[in-house]
Specification:
mainly alpha; 0% strand; 4 helices
């Protein structure tokens, strides 16, 4: 039982959560100090730097048709080679 008491004492999350003062992490302190000197430029939340190029419907259709034809040819070659 003493091992369990030590375990509970060491990892008592309720006690840690009830602390009056919570110290920020080292990264938070570092960023706060850096941003005091030179604040970051405003940026939209999760914005893409550039929009992705849009494919035309015929290009997508040709790509799918080409993949299907390649699979059909591959299966035909495998069956043709195994018939000997």
């Amino acid at each position: 039982m003493p091992e369990q008491d030590d375990w509970e004492r060491e990892f008592d999350h309720r006690w840690a959560s009830s602390a009056e003062h919570k110290e920020p992490s080292a990264r938070a302190r570092m960023l706060a100090a850096r941003w005091r000197e030179s604040p970051p430029d405003p940026a939209p939340f999760r914005a893409d730097p550039e929009p992705a190029p849009r494919r035309t419907s015929w290009a997508s259709t040709a790509m799918v048709f080409g993949c299907v034809m390649a699979v059909v040819v591959l299966i035909g070659l495998v069956q043709f080679g195994s018939s000997y």
